[in-house]
Amino acid sequence: MKIWAIVLAAGSGQRYGGPKHELDLGGLPLWKRSVSVLESAGIDTVIVVGPVDGGIPGGARRRDSVAAGLAKIPDSVEWVLIHDAARPLITRRLVATVVDAARIGNSDGVIPALAVTDTLKLVDGDTVLKTVDRSQIAAVQTPQAFRTRLLREAHLIDPEDDATDDAGLIERIGGTVTIVPGDRTNIKITYEGDLELAERLIKGLQDE
Ligand code: C5P
Fold first, then answer.
1. How many structural domains are present in the chain?
2. Is 118 part of a structural domain of the chain?
3. Which residues line ligand 1 (CB under 6 A)?
4. Domain of 58: which CATH number?
5. Which of 8, 33, 186, 195 to mutate to test the pocket of ligand 1 (most atoms within 8 A of CB)?
6. Which residues, listed in sequence order, are joined to residue 122 by a DSSP beta bridge?
7. Quick check: 72 and 17 in contact, CB under 8 A?
8. What are the tens digits of pLDDT across the range 12-28?
9. N or C end of the chain: smaller count of CB under 10 Å?
10. Cα(90)–Cα(187) distance, rounded to whole angstroms?
């Protein structure tokens, strides 16, 4: 089974206060860390989308950057992994979990997910409206794996509608998506301070 990966590094990092992809984490820029893990996990080819060495230009929205990456993937590649460079603590183990599930399962997409442990509230500004039942809620991560053909189709439908992940697009066209256990250390660098947390996690992992 041929499988390629797209690493997304074309975001403007609005919530962070500037682009994140070149930030240094343990001696490597964020985006390179993901590329190196995906390559060492045996992914055939890794395409980087973003203004980095060897990267291709991204688009205005995340889904546009994914579409730019998809355009570079030949039809013979059956599965594609989509990964946010903003999650530099991706591990080979997580890649293997996702890829193995894609290989043996029948679904169109496989995504890593975590149970939500915080109590969830529906709010309006700073007013609590009600408590949300968390038992059916999952927080999902990347890398996410999809059948390339179906992901291409999903990206052609309703191009004006945005989505925060590709699984959302597959769901909209009626594709099946299954979850596998995510990794609690696979955090997303979103706000200032997240990088420091990632640095502490790396040190902890090295000390083990
Ligand atoms: O902004 P968001 O948190 O959704 O970004 C997730 C990932 O998507 C980041 O790695 C970011 O670089 C990437 N992205 C992109 N092109 C965009 C917006 C986000 O590659 N236009």
1. 1
2. no
3. 8-11, 49-50, 58-62, 65, 84-86, 164, 190
4. 3.90.550.10
5. 8
6. 130
7. no
8. 988 988 888 889 999 99
9. C
10. 8
The residue behind tokens 């995906």 is 38
**Residue 74 belongs to what domain range?**
3-110+142-207
Specify the residue for token string 């291709």. 56
**Residue 194, token pair as written in the block:** 């997240």
Tens digit of each residue's pLDDT (9 = 90 or more) over 79-121 = 999 999 999 999 999 999 999 999 999 999 999 999 999 999 9
Q: By percentage, how much of the chain surpasses pLDDT 70?
A: 98
Domain assignment present for 25: yes
Structural domain includes residue 128: no
The two three-digit tokens of residue 10, written as one number: 């074309």
Q: How far is the CA of 57 from the centre of ligand 1 (A)?
A: 13
User: What distance in Å separates the CA atoms of residue 134 and residue 120, rounded to the nearest whole number?
Assistant: 7
How far does residue 48's CA lie from ligand 1's centre (Å)? 12
